[in-house]
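Support reply, case 0932

Customer input (verbatim):
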Amino acid sequence: MPNRPAPDSTDRIVFSVSELNGAVRELLEHSFGLLWVEGEISNLARPRSGHMYFSLKDGSAQVRCALFRNRARLIRGPLNDGDRVRLRARVSLYPARGDYQLIVEHVEAAGDGALRQAFEQLKARLDAEGLFAVERKRALPAAPARIGAITSATGAAIRDVLSVVSRRYPLGSVRVYPVPVQGEAAPPAIVAALQRASARADCDVLLLVRGGGSLEDLWAFNDEAVARAIVACRVPVVAGVGHEVDVTIADFAADVRAATPTAAAELVCPDLAARAQALPVAMTRLRGRMTARLAAAEQRLAALQTRLVRQHPRRRLEVPMQRLDLAEQRLLRGVRARLARDDQRLTALTRRLRQASPAGAVAAGTTANKVLYNRMVSAMRSRLTSSEQRFNIAARTLHGVSPLQTLERGYAIARDADGNILRAADNVVSGDRVSVDLARGRLDCDVRAVTGPDGT
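Our regenerated output:
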């Protein structure tokens, strides 16, 4: 609990809002520590910062949750609204709002978890195919001379097997097929070892074993290819994977399932009465001591995690990171609203511009101009036709009175030497030169005699 504010003049202790929220936050975090909570995800938000914020709810209540980026990267598979999950989290408070919330450290599917669901689905499918049928199980040899062990060459399981064989059945020999028993490389290596042992047929029985671990650690033994290789193997297979509570697909596919690697070795080795009596007691004691040590280790781990969480500098960044995400969300909302308003205004201005645009008047004027042009062209053509008709009439009329027409009728035009038309005979005297224009050609003549109108 942080230091309380000093009393005022009335002896009342007055908190500021920040002091009160800080005190409540410290109280919540120190009172609860890490805890598990189960519920349904709703209102999931994923800002660009990589953090996640959501509500965890059940039928009658909900609580806000924050999953920061460094933890979100460790989550197996995507989170979605409606997912039912189990969270490992610590109780805290977001001071800026006074909201009580959970700071999430780990997320897994509720119930048996996602891996357990995949396990059940594969088990049901292979069982429907008959791979686990009791009828196909083979009996183990009573006294095998050669025992094959498919396991890690450096793990505790092979040491347990060798120890059991040496103590219970010194006459037997062990052939080790070393394989990785965890990770992506484990399933294909186990399949190859089973196929190799089946092809060689140099062992009377095979032990497929490994020590205990989490469901993820044992997942190689839940692989479909491993199960099919066990069924196809010509040598009887005893599966001893993990602890007594651990069950894998390999256990169902094997001819015999043993609770542990040690139990698997005991199943294939002839039992000595004295050892048989002492072994269960020793196993119980060992299991109790391991359980006690694991419980103590878990308590120490929880205490160390609590100390780490309290002292980790990440806590100082959680509130600013949340505040930044909220500010970013408000900014995005404001920008979207501003863009929407601007878009509406642009639409209205565009509509007004179209209404006030001279394009309509120009189009109407263009249409009217085309009509007037067509009328003008029609009028000009009509005027030209009328003028052409009048011209032709005038030309015919002029042609009718043309001197050339007169000449065509046999008349001629006489001109004196100066080119003047002669209209009377007394305009020339004997010896003058005159030219006579005919309808076709001209005559140059000399006047030999002149006769007047009266014949003189």
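We compared this against your earlier run and they match. Two observations from our side: The first helix runs from residue 17 to 32. The chain has four domains: 17-111, 115-269, 341-390, 405-446. Please reopen the case if you see a mismatch on your end.
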